[in-house]
Design a protein that fits this description.
225 residues; alpha/beta; Rossmann fold; ten-stranded mixed β-sheet; 10 strands; 29% helix
Length: 225
């Protein structure tokens, strides 16, 4: 019997229908004098629900640990994300999906990512298709993932570009949710499906598998007007 695969999601929560897939959850809220931890609230944005759906559709056997870091305005902080990553590592997740990005580098977030990778956890973080990089995607050993309109639901691309390492399908089933966030979640779903079948695979073996099985190689070439 194969071991259970536990996926960490740092986002806005999950839908009521997804509760059966969630084995642990924690809310991290920013206060004037620090951070508060509490039980999960309902997903105020639908973003986390869309991310979990995109992963679970590709890896139905995966179970989720959900760290809620966004408020109703869709705002979060490096402290919340770093604390969430630390908590997910303590839950012994194998993979953490971070469909989010901050403009500023913060030492505590960098340290949390490095500690997770040191423990063998694979981190997938969304990266914009254009413009300046964001964090945590820009940290070493974090997979930078964006969306690729060329990719069907079961495909991904190996970009190896200044913007991202990989990309995947940008479309989900939640209205209004698309782009790099969904591309990152889709790739996490492909990785999760592989890890269900190959639970002993190392992060390096996962990345080799992604490269070897990518539908497209290199960024999409857009023709000018």
């Amino acid at each position: 019997m194969k071991p259970e695969l536990h996926i960490g999601v740092v986002d806005s929560g999950h839908s009521p229908a997804q509760r059966v897939q969630v084995i642990a959850g924690r809310r991290f809220s920013l206060l004037d004098d620090g951070l508060a931890e509490s039980d999960l609230h309902d997903d105020p944005l639908g973003h986390g629900s869309a991310v979990i759906e995109a992963i679970g559709r590709r890896a139905p056997a995966a179970l989720f640990c959900v760290a809620q870091v966004f408020d109703r305005r869709g705002v979060t902080s490096a402290l919340q994300i770093a604390t969430a990553i630390d908590w997910l590592v303590a839950q012994e997740v194998r993979l953490i999906n971070l469909s989010l990005g901050l403009r500023q580098d913060r030492s505590l977030l960098r340290a949390a990512c490095a500690a997770a990778v040191e423990r063998g956890v694979l981190l997938c973080a969304s990266s914009p298709a254009q413009g300046e990089g964001v964090f945590p995607a820009s940290y070493p050993q974090v997979l930078r993932v964006t969306g690729d309109a060329r990719c069907a639901e079961d495909q991904w691309s190996w970009l190896d570009s200044a913007q991202a390492d990989f990309a995947a399908c940008v479309h989900g089933t939640y209205p209004g949710q698309s782009g790099a966030s969904l591309g990152c979640a889709a790739l996490s779903g492909h990785i999760a499906a592989f890890l269900v079948e190959q639970p002993d695979a190392s992060n390096g073996q996962v990345i080799d598998w992604l490269r070897q099985n990518a539908r497209y190689r290199g960024p999409e070439r857009r023709l000018g007007p």
